[in-house]
Amino acid sequence: MSFISIIFDKQVGYLQNLPIKQPEHFKDLNLDQIVDEITTGWQKYDLKSFFYFPLKDLDAIEYRHNVFRDLETETFYEHVNLFADQMRKVRKYIELIEKFFYIEQKEIWFLYAAGIYCDAVKNFSGNLSSSSIKSQGFLKIKDYLTNYSLSEDFISLADDIKRIKEDLAKVKYQIIIQEGSFTVQNFEPGIDYSTEIEKVFEKFNQEAVKDYKVEYKSSPTEMNHIEVKILDFVSQLYPDLFSRLKNFLINNANFINEIISSYDREIHFYISYIEHIKKFKQNKLKFCYPQIVNKSKEIYSYEGFDLALAQKLNKNNSRIICNDFYLKDKERIIAVTGPNQGGKTTFARTFGQLHYLASIGCTVPGSKAQLYLADNIFTQFERVEKVENLRGKLEDDLKRIHSVLQNATSQSIIVMNEIFNSTTLQDMKFLSTKLLEKIIDLDIICVWVTFIDELANFNEQTVSMTSMIVPETPALRTFKIIRRPADGLAYAMAIAEKYKLGYNNIMGRINK
Amino acid sequence: MKSFLMFKDRDFDLDKILVKREKKYSRENIPDLGLLLPWNHQELIQDLGLDILFNAMAEKDNFIYEDVKVIILNSTKDADSIYYRQNILKDCIKNEVIVRDTYKLILETIEKEKAIYGWGFLKEKPDSVLHQARNKLEMFSEMLFKLRTIVERNENDFDSEGFKRLFKMLKEELSEEYLDELNYQLNELKFKDGILVSTELGFGNKGTNYVLHKPPKDNRKWWERLLSKKLDGYTYEIHPRDEAGARALSELRNQSINLVANALAQSMDHILNFFQVLRTELAFYVGCLNLCNKLKQLKEPICFPNLFSSGKKILSFSELYDINLALSSGKKVVGNDLRADGKDLFIITGANTGGKSTLLRSLGIAQLMMQAGMFVPAEKFSAEIRDSIFTHFKREEDTAMESGKLDEELNRMSEIVDKVNSKSMVLFNESFSATNEREGSEIARQITNALIESGIKVFFVTHQYEFAHNFYERNINNAIFLRAERLKDGTRTFKIKEGEPMQTSYGEDLFNEIFLKKDDVNN
Known about the structure:
The structure holds two protein chains of two kinds.
Chain A (H helix, E strand, L loop, with lengths): L30 H9 L8 H4 L6 H14 L2 H26 L3 H28 L5 H14 L2 H19 L1 E7 L2 E6 L6 H9 L23 H13 L1 H13 L6 H25 L4 E2 L2 E3 L5 E6 L2 H10 L6 E5 L5 E5 L6 H16 L4 E2 L2 E5 L4 E5 L11 H15 L5 E5 L7 H18 L2 E5 L3 H4 L5 E8 L7 E7 L6 H9 L4 H9 L1
Parallel strand pairs in A: 4-9, 7-12, 7-13, 10-11, 11-12
Antiparallel strand pairs in A: 1-2, 3-8, 5-6, 5-9, 13-14
Helix pairs in contact in A: 4-5, 4-11, 5-6, 5-7, 5-10, 7-10, 9-10
Chain B lengths: L14 H9 L17 H8 L1 H9 L3 H12 L5 H16 L1 H20 L10 H29 L6 H13 L2 H13 L6 E7 L5 E6 L6 H10 L5 E4 L5 H55 L8 E3 L6 E6 L2 H7 L6 E4 L5 E6 L5 H17 L7 E5 L3 E6 L8 H18 L4 E6 L7 H17 L3 E5 L3 H10 L4 E8 L5 E7 L8 H16 L1
Helix pairs in contact in B: 1-4, 1-11, 3-4, 3-11, 3-12, 4-11, 5-11, 6-7, 6-11, 7-9, 7-11, 15-16
């Protein structure tokens, strides 16, 4: 059988090699929160490992982009979801059957499960054929389902179900209930007593009165031994039909096709993501298909945002700020400086998230983006000091960054957030400069949140971006990070302006 | 089966709510009586003093009190319905004892129904629904039989269309054969020999669409036949210790009789409903009988009014008296006579405490009673039917400042203007006097002009000379000016006569009367 998967274009490291653990940078970039949120409600599909597995080549990413594009067609998306719903129901019924005590119940629910499965396959196969899908992924599924649904096995399965169901619907019988016993008999026509009673009292009818019917909401999945006994008697009234029902279970134990089953799991990689970003799109946030590059290191992103933060803010109904960035020519390193709480860390995370999401073939936050397909994303965020850790914090930082640099290649991305804080400014400058030189040597794309302005103006490979404040009210954060020289003055100046102590203020005051 | 004692062709649709208020279902919200009343009922009751009338009719029976309150305040605009009720009321007066006996029988039925243990707090099972419905229906069957007996004995004494129809219907519908059939069915529903139910396989192969089969009349044979066919079916005996099995079987039995129990319980409700409607409709006439007896004792006249359709501008009466004054003082009071056909505007001026407000109230009450289908407190009364009646009376002085009071008055007026139509009538009592006379007169003049030109009938008691005089001067022929009579020596006769508005209301007389009397005492 040829390899058919809706999420992988070719059989590379599939299934056997899918990671169970999240990548190391997940926590620093808050990607763990994002993936948790995306997969919430879809636990049964065990989707996380799909999100833990970045793709290695452009074709694999294109393969997923095209599937996402097909799913943008609303009606087609509905068809895909309809199939998923029906398969969920099938599995729910199968779970039920395992719990049932009476074989009589297992038999009928098994028939139902198989019936829904057949309907689902027929429906979806038809819908795939009538949709104008373009992605290789869906085209392969379509071909497979077409052949499958025309196979002899499948057709006879569907026919069996249909006939047994029809015959069951025709079953009629009567019960005589007496004190302590009951008798099940063949049906004989009689007069409905309740309409008879209504007739006797018809003349008194006024407008609608209270309904005295007691609602019997007994679950269809529950049966007591009396009901089972009655069903048993009914099966003796209709022996042929019920032996067909029994044989159906025996003969069709594993009716779900393997390819269909794995498609059903994999498609939820897309569905879960689409459903997740829907909430943000409703709030006018944008998502785009990023251009993926692996040779050039020119990248850009417009109106990107931190998806994890957006999740939080969405719940509080507050608005998230979008930011832009780009690197061109020889530019490799973005040094982010500026006041605290200004959105610097968020910016760094966004940068990492966008690249990671792009590497798993998803759409990314933003209106337009070109992103680099890295072999690995390394992060270096401040860690809480561990008591049992005998090394000092600075030492820890250095050890970690050392190991990063040993593993990083020129195709890696590094995201760093205020490291070397636990030393003097002098030391900090020294260490940072050394580290920067190494990164430049490796030609690595890097975002570095730092206090040290010098890094921003190091050479033509470094770019300076700073967080913005509102001059009149410095306490108010804009969370905007823009390309601007790091002069270390913006914040201080704003406060000065407020107290009329800016240069011009003072000149003006004095000259009066 | 419908009683139709309020309208020829439809139920008195307010009864449901009255019954619910009365029954006081512990778990149902008691509906607000206000929902059944016109928006301005509080003003009408307060301004016309209607509570005295309602109480006299109710004789401490709260149900009758609410019943007559709703009926009188919701006056009907249709002459046929008014005549229809007048005739029924005439029959009631003629056959008071029979009507009161029937009413008593109905009350007894309703009481007995309540006494049969009602639905508890627990969710009932069809079994107990059926059991209770059967008990109640057996009681109803007995009472229906008594009702038919009353009808058969007395039907010839009644002349009105309403009663004739009701009696004919009761006789036909509650025939001996029918009541026998009913009793037979109630007995069958005991299901002494078990039940036979047909069913189908539903979702999950569970039984569904349970249809209980009617047992044929030759019950015994049917059962023997069934038992003899035992070979055809499969029988299961539940072990005496299998409690779960017994419960499941009883559940199945309950499910099977669910629809029949429902049908029976609904029939029970329908019959109860029939009794309740009959009670609600008769209660009004019982209230009228109570009132009639009281007025007879006071030797006050009553008459059934002559009706004219709206727009005919008819109003004439003789010995129209204030029924509330009579009832509360317990003696015969002064009546007034008037012939004022063709008039739209009635301006009543004259001496203080000379009977102006009394006349205004009498007119309002008579109109309401007439349009409820009742007799009116007068020797003769002819009037046109109006769509709605509004009162705009000067309110008691409260703590509000003068300007606030005028605000309040104008606000009330504005509400009325929202609701009036060309067939309404509006009673003013010293309105717009919360300001100086010139301004008050001008407001009153403009409002009154607008109303009468719209076809509205206006009765205006006023001390505002400018206002009254202005209309008098204009000499318009659809206005009439009435004045409280004062004899030359200052005595009030409490008679209202036609007369030109005067500049004084003889407040001086009142002053003298009170002060001089005091002086007498002092001397």
